[in-house]
From TrEMBL:
Protein name: 2-phosphoxylose phosphatase 1
Any GO BP: chondroitin sulfate proteoglycan biosynthetic process
Record-linked PANTHER family: 2-PHOSPHOXYLOSE PHOSPHATASE 1, ACID PHOSPHATASE-RELATED
Pfam families linked: His_Phos_2
Membrane topology classification: Single-pass type II membrane protein
Lineage of origin: Eukaryota, Metazoa, Chordata, Craniata, Vertebrata
Provenance organism: Macaca nemestrina
Similarity section: Belongs to the histidine acid phosphatase family.
Compartmental location: Golgi apparatus membrane
Swiss-Prot/TrEMBL keywords: Glycoprotein, Golgi apparatus, Hydrolase, Membrane, Signal-anchor, Transmembrane, Transmembrane helix
A single cellular component GO annotation: Golgi membrane
Reactions the enzyme catalyzes: 3-O-[beta-D-GlcA-(1->3)-beta-D-Gal-(1->3)-beta-D-Gal-(1->4)-beta-D-2-O-P-Xyl]-L-seryl-[protein] + H2O = 3-O-(beta-D-GlcA-(1->3)-beta-D-Gal-(1->3)-beta-D-Gal-(1->4)-beta-D-Xyl)-L-seryl-[protein] + phosphate
Amino acid sequence: SNLKHLFMCLLAISIYFSAIVHLIPVSTAKNGVSSKSRKRIMPDPVTEPPVTDPVYEALLYCNIPSVAERSMEGHAPHHFKLVSVHVFIRHGDRYPLYVIPKTKRPEIDCTLVANRKPYHPKLEAFVSHMSKGSGASFESPLNSLPLYPNHPLCEMGELTQTGVVQHLQNGQLLRDIYLKKHKLLPNDWSADQLYLETTGKSRTLQSGLALLYGFLPDFDWKKIYFRHQPSALFCSGTCYCPVRNQYLEKEQRRQYLLRLKNSQLEKTYGEMAKIVDVPTKQLRAANPIDSMLCHLCHNVSFPCTRNGCVDMEHFKVIKTHQIEDERERREKKLYLGYSLLGAHPILNQTIGRMQRATEGRKEELFALYSAHDVTLSPVLSALGLSEARFPRFAARLIFELWQDREKPNEHSVRILYNGVDVTFHTSFCQDHHKRSPKPMCPLENLVRFVKRDMFVALGGSSTNYYDACHREGF
């Protein structure tokens, strides 16, 4: 039995390391039962490191570009035709948004340099193309933003070289699949076949440009037009939603109470506050994890003062609490209420675009939303992908629309998160493949979900977005 035990340990370790090498998103399915699906992101619990390792999770989040990843985008039986693709990205690696008080900022160079890692074969061409300046007119205020990062010491929140390379790589991967293999865009493609939208931050605009530069066969400024989205939820003209905000307030209260219960976290913040010589409250407000992740992702040592050093143990405690918070967030369902209302406008816009494509309309075949973790996270949650990891740098969530050539009136969707097919993990399609041999989810499932089931899931009697947002007595 000792031998058997040793063998099981070695097996678990080897699976763990192979997951690190391939950076396969692994997590257990709901209640620990592995769900049957063609490409599982939720293998059996034995393959997960027994306790979630905070450093392993943080490195997955960094998403440091290394080997080209294997991905499931564009996989379909040969009698299916790709009709349109809708891509939601989180911006790439960035400089922190917060500074740890009284410490030296991490020294990271935000100019783009060919002989520095990470590198991409298109990097120099990207820089020279961007530095010629845009012949494009973007929707205001985007035209006042720089087109690529270029400060020797990064500015707060600025995209780094790593961030640019992550999205050049995403673009290249999508180009190989959608353009070379599936011929999504015709050779003489025009501006109206792309739909491009970004928030007003330089890191999202630059990430979108890097992805497009990797993706398009000829990056012609005259065909690139980015729309500006003032809201991180991409809710356009329908952002006012009081009930959504109430869910958010309750969720923030839950977060606060969980933090109060964690005495080890309190102690860690106290220690770190002593090191940097500020009140604990001030240190916490400076959100030190954001800066510490930057140190980790860029392999820069944590800051020191004459009172000592912030160290890996401090980092592990804060990161472990973050993981715990995500776990409780899934159980308590307040965030789900926020997400269903928060993600509705952008999902509604996406199915509208898909429905027009099914009618044979040829514009907006490729849609790109360049966004933030606070954009992708609610969409993942609303779709029922509760086991999906928090959006890493340069995360991508993709909706593919397919037509069955043998039954041209039938359209199906696939949903992929970081290259993994998660279609049958979504709440609107998780039972579909038990009842049907079809390899994809019928488009009408997604349409019914967005038009009706999202509101049913909120409880109450609302059947549309406006009523759900203004429901009394929530």
